[in-house]
């Protein structure tokens, strides 16, 4: 009899665990939908200058982008920068508490982790992210950087990178185009 009562209690506990709901996690917000536009395989082509008197550098590569749980896009970029192989990982998400897009960038060419915050324009066509990073024009100093992604069409993104000069003006040092090769 005692064994039957123990089995009954055990069965009731298992039954209640099976029907108990776990914690309710928030779902993606409407702002996360913008990030889905990155998903897929892309070719990249850009031109950059590391200073006002430096010759332009041509960079070609690829970007592989995937969504992570509807909240994040993970972009992996590979290419050639001034004859050097370059690999970078970028994450972009939306933080509802901050009401800002957030993200990171790391690559094999420097030891700095870029931490982004930004917004999308009123038309929903351009995502602009800002971060602090090493000033290319003044060794040992930091400055603000701005990356903008303009969604020209479903298969074309125009990217620009700018840095804040010592005079308080933004200087664009790289522009490029990403063209979709395939969707996920």
Structural description of this entry:
The protein is mainly beta. The chain has a single domain (28-46, 57-182), classed as Beta Barrel (Lipocalin), CATH 2.40.128.20. Helix content is 10%, strand content 55%. The protein is built from 1 helix and 10 strands. It has one helix spanning 2-19; strands at residues 40-48, 57-68, 72-81, 84-95, 100-107, 114-120, 126-134, 142-153, 156-164, 170-182. The chain has a 10-stranded antiparallel barrel. The longest helix is centred in the first third of the chain and has 18 residues, at 2-19. The chain is globular. 15% of the residues are buried. The model has no long low-confidence stretch (mean pLDDT 89).
How does the SSE layout of this entry go?
Elements: H1 2-19, E1 40-48, E2 57-68, E3 72-81, E4 84-95, E5 100-107, E6 114-120, E7 126-134, E8 142-153, E9 156-164, E10 170-182
Antiparallel strand pairs: 1-2, 1-10, 2-3, 3-4, 4-5, 5-6, 6-7, 7-8, 8-9, 9-10
State the major sheet: 10 strands, antiparallel, barrel
Shape: globular
Q: Structural class of the secondary structure composition?
A: mainly beta
Strand content: over 45%
Assigned CATH superfamily: Calycin beta-barrel core domain
CATH topology: Lipocalin
Whole-Å distance between the termini? 59 Å
Keywords:
184 residues, 1 helix, mainly beta, Lipocalin, 10-stranded antiparallel β-barrel
Q: What is shown here, in short?
A:
This protein is mainly beta and 184 residues long.
